[in-house]
Write a structure and sequence with these properties.
- By secondary structure, the chain is α/β, with parallel strands linked by helices.
- The chain has 2 domains: about 150 residues, Aspartate Aminotransferase, domain 1, CATH 3.90.1150; about 250 residues, Type I PLP-dependent aspartate aminotransferase-like (Major domain) (Aspartate Aminotransferase, domain 2).
- Helices cover about 45% and strands about 15% of the residues.
- It is built from 16 helices and 13 strands.
- A 7-stranded mixed beta sheet has the order 2-8-7-6-5-3-4, with helices on both faces. It has a 3-stranded mixed beta sheet with strand order 1-9-10. A 3-stranded antiparallel beta sheet has the order 11-13-12.
- Helix 6 links the parallel strand 3 and strand 4.
- Helix 3 runs antiparallel to helix 4.
- It is globular, with a radius of gyration of 23 Å.
- This is Aminotransferase class V domain-containing protein.
- Keywords: Pyridoxal phosphate.
């Protein structure tokens, strides 16, 4: 395959509807047509001879994908398996750990909503406690790190045990870069394919990341990493399946072919009947990315470099058009990712009369009208007393796409001020 220039040329590789501007890559990701062909090849193979494929061929393909993703992350292949998504990754960790009454789960105020609900469920069903580190962006990386250190000291001073801490690589809402100097349990939902990651150097206790968001792999596919020192802690997949072995050593005979793989790898090889074709597309996606070029760079440097550049410049363009600003701290670290946040020029007091429910209604109206009337979408949310939009950079976007988004948002804000959201 020849080289593909990021921007308009790369856009031709994707299958968007005519005129659609996908400024919200971060929520669900997407993948190019060449990877769709690989996906369907595996699916066709599965339907041609189901038993041969599922019992004998799929595990071999899965090992090839594990090896490819492990090499990409600079991690041992023995530490990497696949799950459907990052939320499943966190559930796998928290539902495997055994909690005592003194154990505390530490997490940050901007944790992904489904992950916070998972923490609440664990508190409901186990003796675990939780500690949320409260703050409101923009804050510095140093502030977050010191706040975490203070939280650990406070928990220990209360005679409790900080069992596990959940960190992000890139926060979802607001979409900002987070420091990863601490490495207990890393929710890298927006990590792989987005920012450089060296797991052997970072050495987290657990790590999981959606390949279907930024690595151009079909949904749903996430890599799940556990170093060998912690693999014994992961007792089950979700759902529990044939790889589970009781601590007493007793287990029901498996109808699946035997293998000599580690208990950890074998645990994730069969997790009930699912379509694991997305997992098998990782090598093809990595190969496709190698052909992308930009500004004299190729492969991952081009993908990450262009994505960051178009996100930052596009966000500045929208903010200038709206007469507002991009969310960042004084150190400029929040915007070092392909997600950017722009404040909308709308007055909370004027529009809602102080009713927070109306703030949600307005955000929901803006989200829907983008699709219905403007053939585009950016994530809309109410945060810190203002409405914000989160845009994404990607290899298929150009500044023209952001100009279109800026014009649409300007018109939509005018419509909000006229009260159309009330209808």
């Amino acid at each position: 395959m020849g080289s593909i220039e990021c921007g308009k040329e790369a856009a031709k590789q994707f299958t968007f509807a005519d005129g659609y501007r996908n400024l919200n890559h971060g929520s669900f990701g997407t993948y190019p047509a060449p990877i769709r062909q690989v996906l369907r090849k595996f699916q066709d193979e599965a339907e041609a001879v189901p038993d041969k494929y599922i019992r004998y061929d799929s595990p071999k393909y899965l090992d090839e994908s594990r090896e490819a993703v492990a090499k990409y992350l600079n991690a041992p292949t023995s530490t990497c398996v696949f799950v459907a998504n990052a939320t499943t990754g966190l559930n796998t960790v928290l539902r495997s750990l055994v909690f005592k009454p003194e154990d505390v789960i530490i997490y940050f105020a901007t944790i992904y909503g489904a992950c916070e609900k998972t923490v609440e469920y664990i508190k409901e069903t186990t003796p675990a406690k939780s500690h949320k580190i409260a703050y409101e962006y923009p804050v510095s990386d140093d502030y977050l790190c010191s706040s975490f250190e203070e939280a650990v000291k406070q928990i220990r001073a209360e005679g409790l045990n900080p069992k596990i801490a959940i960190f992000d690589t890139v926060v979802s809402m607001p979409g900002v870069r987070m420091p990863t100097t601490c490495s207990s349990c890393i929710d890298g939902a927006h990590g792989i394919g987005h920012i450089p990651l060296e797991l052997s150097a970072l050495d987290p206790d657990f790590f999981f990341s959606n390949c279907h968001k930024w690595l151009h792999v079909p949904r749903g596919c996430a890599v799940f990493y556990a170093p060998e020192r912690n693999q014994h802690l992961i007792r089950t997949t979700l759902p529990t399946s044939w790889g589970f072995v009781e601590k007493a050593g007793k287990t029901a005979p498996s109808p699946l072919p035997p293998n000599a793989k580690s208990p950890y790898v074998a645990l994730f090889e069969y997790t009930a009947t699912t379509d694991n074709a997305p997992y098998l597309c990782v090598p093809a996606a990595l190969q496709w990315r190698k052909g992308l070029t930009w500004n004299g760079k190729q492969g991952e440097e081009a993908v990450m470099g262009y994505g960051l550049w178009v996100a930052q410049e596009g966000a500045k363009l929208i903010a200038k058009s709206l007469g507002t600003e991009v969310l960042d701290n004084d150190q400029g670290t929040l915007t070092k990712c392909m997600l950017q946040n722009i404040r909308l020029p709308l007055s909370y007091d004027k529009l809602t009369g102080g009713d927070a429910a109306n703030a949600t209604k307005i955000a929901q109206w803006i989200a829907k009208v983008q699709i219905d009337d403007y053939n585009t979408f950016v994530a809309v949310y109410f945060y810190a007393g203002s409405w914000w939009v989160r845009v994404s950079g990607q290899v298929y976007l150009t500044l023209e796409d952001f100009e279109y988004g800026a014009k649409a948002l300007h018109e939509i804000c005018q419509r909000v001020e006229k009260g159309e959201w009330k209808v």
